[in-house]
Amino acid sequence: MVGGQPQDISYKGEPTKLIIGDNNIIREFTTLNCGTTKDGGVTQIGNNCMLMAYVHIAHDCKLGHHVIVANSTQFAGHVHVDDYARIGGMVGIAQFARIGRYAYIGGGATINKDILPYSIAEGNWAKVRATNKVGISRAGFSKSEVDGIYRAIRFLIMGGRTIAEALQKIDEECEMTPHLQHLIDFVKSSENGIAR
Q1: Cα maximum dimension of the chain
Q2: Residue 111 β-bridge partners
Q3: Residue 56 burial by Cβ neighbours in a 10 Å radius (0-12, 13-18, 19+)
Q4: DSSP-H helix ranges across 37-162
Q5: Of 94, 108, 109, 185, which one's alpha carbon is 20 to 30 angstroms from that of 124?
Q6: pTM > 0.90: yes or no
Q7: Long-range pairs, 103-108, Cβ under 8 A, ≥24
Q8: What are the pLDDT digits (tens) for 60-97?
Q9: Cα–Cα distance measured from residue 60 to residue 77, given in angstroms and rounded to the nearest whole number
Q10: Are 131 and 120 in contact (CB under 8 A)?
Q11: Which residues pair with 18 in a beta bridge?
Q12: Beta 92-93 vs 110-111: how paired, if at all?
């Protein structure tokens, strides 16, 4: 069902919306719920997305552009997914989780924390395991950009550093680019914590 009422007991029939962009593929038995008044009243799907069969997008979710979601993946409310993310089949995503741009989520993962942009995450509970080097290279990132993101993600997920220590190391040892700044901003704005 597309545009059904949110599955939230606080919903009392308020006028809320589902906004779907252009050139999307929405396959059979996918459910897309309208928003609630708790979060602006809008569930939003960007442009050029593919939602495979049996995907559920709950109330107040926001998907960017060029997002691909495989079969039977379930989004709880208020999930935000940035552009070019790839989400495998049978993934469960908890409320308020964020998935960064160009992230790749392995099938069957369960996500309860934010997933770094440009990373690969898998597991139950999902953890960032690596940099999505293949995905961002295919997207046209330069070798130096890929190498810088790779180093930054390693600083964040390896070595037992605190987030503050990892960010300091990135600042000291990585060449700043717009993509690297996006990664840093994502980490700094995380309210759920980073899956690492």
Answers
A1: 53
A2: 93
A3: buried
A4: 133-138, 143-157
A5: 185
A6: yes
A7: 103/132, 104/132, 104/135, 107/70
A8: 999 999 999 999 999 999 999 999 999 999 999 999 99
A9: 6
A10: yes
A11: 43
A12: parallel
In whole angstroms, what is the distance from residue 110 CA to residue 126 CA?
Answer: 5
Residues with catalytic function: 59-60, 77
Tokens of 87: 């989400």
Give the start-to-end residue ranges of the domains of the chain: 2-130, 134-188
The correct answer on CATH 1.10.3720.10 for the domain covering 134-188 is no
Work out the burial of residue 132: count CB atoms within 10 Å of its CB; fewer than 13 is exposed, 13-18 middle, 19 or more buried.
buried
- Which residue type does 184 have? I
Q: Could you tell me the two tokens for 183?
A: 């990664």
Chain centroid to CA 48: 16
> Who contacts 9 (Cβ-Cβ below 8 Å, separation ≥6)?
none
2-130 belongs to which CATH class? mainly beta
- In the DSSP assignment, the letter for residue 107 is T
Average pLDDT, the chain: 95
Return d(Cα 26, Cα 53) in angstroms, integer: 8
Q: Mutual orientation of helices 178-188 and 143-157 as an angle, nearest 10°?
A: 20
- State pLDDT tens for residues 159-188: 999 999 999 999 999 999 999 999 999 999
